[in-house]
Model the fold of this input.
Amino acid sequence: MLTRVFYISEIVESVTDIDVLVILGVAQVNNRRLDVTGMLAQSDGHFAQVLEGRTDVMRTLLAKIATDPRHREMRSLLQDSIERRQFSRWSMGLVRRDDMAEQMKTLHRDGCTNNAQARLMIQQLMASAP
Ligand SMILES: Cc1cc2nc3c(=O)[nH]c(=O)nc-3n(C[C@H](O)[C@H](O)[C@H](O)COP(=O)(O)O)c2cc1C
Done:
């Protein structure tokens, strides 16, 4: 069974652009091995990540990501059973979305009222994916 998850977290202040590139590199290698796909969006204050993969694999991976000291307060906004991947081309892609910093902040603070809102946010965040 496949699962898609979407969360937003706060980036720890000391994290640099180089650190983010290191996260991306490790994620790409690991995710390829685990058959996990997805995208990581970054504003100056928040990460928003979509991950897709086998449900059991995702559980372990998310537990690992949740304890990563480079971010905090991971807020899960969507957990969907899916039949097809949306990001099948990327083991992990990175998009910079400073233009959506306020929306990311609000969603992280308040959460979303329904899954449709979270799905719309994914579409908007990832619209600039290469
Ligand atoms: C925002 C964020 C997203 C991450 N995404 C992934 C990911 O998709 N896949 C992954 O393996 N690690 C990801 N990591 C890194 C993990 O927390 C962890 O450092 C890494 O998986 C350890 O890999 P290793 O066990 O090969 O040393 C992410 C970290 C952060 C802060």
In short: The domain at 2-126 is CATH 3.30.70.100 (Alpha-Beta Plaits). The beta strands are 2-11, 37-42, 46-54, 71-82, 93-96. Residues 23, 26-27, 30-31, 40, 47, 49, 51, 61, 64-65, 68, 70-71, 92 surround flavin mononucleotide (CB under 6 Å).
